Amino acid sequence: MTQSVSPLAPERPVDLPALDGVRIATAAAGIKYEGRTDLMVMVFDRPATVAGVFTKSLCPSAPVEFCRQNLPGGRALALVVNSGNANAFTGKKGAEAAQITADTAAAALGCDASDVFLASTGVIGEPMDASAFAGKLSGLCGDAVPDGWMGAARAIMTTDTYPKLAARTAKINGVEVRINGIAKGAGMIAPDMATMLSFVVTDADISSRALQALLSEGVEGTFNAITVDSDTSTSDTVMLFATGSAMDGDAAQIEDADDDALAEFKAALFDLLKDLAHQVVRDGEGARKMVEITVRGAASDKAAKIIALSVANSPLVKTAVAGEDANWGRVVMAVGKAGQEANRDQLNIWFGDIRVAASGERDPDYSEEAAAAVMKQSTINITVDVGVGNGEATVWTCDLTKDYVAINGDYRS
Amino acid sequence: MTQSVSPLAPERPVDLPALDGVRIATAAAGIKYEGRTDLMVMVFDRPATVAGVFTKSLCPSAPVEFCRQNLPGGRALALVVNSGNANAFTGKKGAEAAQITADTAAAALGCDASDVFLASTGVIGEPMDASAFAGKLSGLCGDAVPDGWMGAARAIMTTDTYPKLAARTAKINGVEVRINGIAKGAGMIAPDMATMLSFVVTDADISSRALQALLSEGVEGTFNAITVDSDTSTSDTVMLFATGSAMDGDAAQIEDADDDALAEFKAALFDLLKDLAHQVVRDGEGARKMVEITVRGAASDKAAKIIALSVANSPLVKTAVAGEDANWGRVVMAVGKAGQEANRDQLNIWFGDIRVAASGERDPDYSEEAAAAVMKQSTINITVDVGVGNGEATVWTCDLTKDYVAINGDYRS
């Protein structure tokens, strides 16, 4: 199904510069789509360190299980991603398809299958015939080139309407390092693990253990703080690789995530993760508006996040945003159903800068016109103070439109 | 906003016969709507016993708080319900409006305000001027007549497209008793407490304590097992009154819900609650299909219900149903995200009688045509066996259509 590009898309996608130590290739393997690429390989010149966070679904896909198995090894020589088929709920044949894919890449690169990582995205429950694209895969491993980021971002898209890329730089002990990242999302986006794929590579030299700590912390306020439809996929995967190529020479690998030398890198990484997460929300299926929801005054940061997600996932809040209706009563409803401590009679709610509710009732200065003007914007900030403590959290979502229903009522057929 | 009647509505609403001991009156008080009734009073000739279950929202409406306060008294002489304004998140003025309403009814009936129960449904956060309809209310208490059930069901509607009524009879110690019930629902329907109003009256003679036990148990598999959009209102209220009028004479009041004499009554009551709950789902905003989801093989009945509700609340499952797409992969996704024990490789899924997934993969005999035929029906049964135990639960929901978005994107304005 074809859709026009999301009105919330960046004006134009930015391509990324090459990053030392990684090469990329893509191909049209015809897994499901016609006339577009659907297979992507990243090849690391030398073993990269690796970290990953995966879906909390109890019915994970075969590639997720495969990655979990390889992750303790802490080294990666290749990443293979396909779109069009999620290889999820495909039983023993699914595990075999994952193994065939990894074996093929390993043979082409002369490495072990345990050094290969995989991700698949697309339809669930359809058997995936990996042998059908194994031939292409062998060639790809040899064809990979440094300048392939835009192609990679395009090859992993499913119902995405635009490719998602972001880059940052940072200094570690005086050496400039790069971070390049791509993501795909669109439907089934919800925290724990924002139902999407994202792959980030840096040329810094950081141990797998430190990478894992950085990534696990980094997703909390970014990929785990976005939601499109509260649905969690079987395939959510965020991986972070470090090639170490920028640090060649004297510098020792950084072993510890708390190393002071990583402060700037960590900030740049988290900023990149947030950038990609926002791009995913902005491409939410049928989205016309982005919504940032901040809850403060909660009993804890965790409580604040639960309340914020309750607001973000409420179909009634999301349809009100779609209708540009400043219906703060539905925000009250969503706060009330979250099950976290809140003081109804101290509740304050703002739409943008307009306080619409104060101390448990409609703001005495409430102006329908002022609130309506906020709702016409393409990004809407909703702030709620629940009046019981100092906990705070921000999450992001999009509106729920008729197009969401249209896209998802006709996705598989 | 006007909508045509839900295609899932009963062919024609059945009016209910009078029930001894209760009289009903309605009026058009102009609270919000024009050209229709919006105020309903039930008057009990003698003090009725009473039970209630209410929203678990932490931001409950003023009438919910008022009822909770009166419930321990265990006696009711009147019930006053208005539509158009929920009197929720209205601060101290909201509590005052509830008190004025109750005081007015109490004065007209010569009883205490603590014998009056209230419910309000409609917009949240708008101040409700009870004094504006207090005049009508005084008159109504005198005008009440036994034959007012259809009028009552109509007066409490908001976005409902049809009135919801049900009646049952049962024998208690050889005496036939009646149970009459009405409900309203449509949006914000989700368990804990299926975001709706329902009022049930029987002429049996049963203590408040026993009534409460019956009602609390009865809602579990009925009103607490339906969901339209996962949103929980601030006003959910189900009340059960017993006038005792059928039992005049020698029979003693039944004190205990476990009394064998109540077996038939209990079955009839639960059946009536299920009937009303289903009528609420069938009038889900924008609903075109009803979906019954049964989960079995779970670790416990409670786990089964959590999984079933995860499927029922998944926007991706609900849009697939709307699109008549037999997309069982989304059912797998919803099972996986429920967080309850499930054996992915033992999962079986049926759409109607068609097994679409077996032992963790697509059924070897899967037929797209057979599954598609099931999806064309107006009521769709989805059964999932998660393969770990004997827990079982059934819940009901409806599809998610463009009309849901249209109705809720334009409700308040």
UniProtKB/TrEMBL annotation, chains A, B:
InterPro entries: Arg_biosynth_ArgJ, ArgJ-like_dom_sf, ArgJ_beta_C. It catalyses: L-glutamate + acetyl-CoA = N-acetyl-L-glutamate + CoA + H(+); N(2)-acetyl-L-ornithine + L-glutamate = N-acetyl-L-glutamate + L-ornithine. Pfam families: ArgJ (PF01960). The record marks 121-122 as: Involved in the stabilization of negative charge on the oxyanion by the formation of the oxyanion hole. Signal peptide: none annotated. One of its GO terms (biological process) is ornithine biosynthetic process. It is found in: Cytoplasm. The active site is at 195 (nucleophile). Belongs to the ArgJ family. This is Arginine biosynthesis bifunctional protein ArgJ. The gene is argJ.
